[in-house]
Input
Amino acid sequence: MNQLRQNRPTPARSWIAALGAACVAGCAVNSPPVLTSSVGTAPPSISKIHLVEPDAEKVQRGELYSAIAQELRGRGVEIAEDADAVADFAISVSPSPVGLYASEAGKSDDQPEQIATTRKQRWYDACEAVRVQASLVLYNRGNGELLKSSKAESMGCEGDMPVAELAELLADDLLAD
Output
């Protein structure tokens, strides 16, 4: 009888088990990359793009360049300087508690639209959460017309950016019908 009583869950044991499960679950920061904006359409038979190369000291831009180039080549698109279409891209990393707005808050609009939600640091997070945003734009070289613009974002741990996944989303959207 005493042995049965010792193995029964008590409120303290239940609380400790719940706390342990939360700690083992780890950081709840990571979210898969999602496409947040897509404007325009690329020409249906695009086979060659000039992808603007980043400066050597821009490490994050260099990583995104390599990932986008790989995704485009994997879809049969040649990266060439003499292409009729020019693609440029950007990547930014910001702390997750910082909100992003569609216009200048307090200057042009008292109630600006929030385009990226904030996420506060939580006690059980295993890292500092950051928001990673990437964009890819395609222009007509001849007249400068914007053909396609795509944006994707993700939340994750600082230093663990899903560059390949962001590039895949952006390339998919760029070449979508």
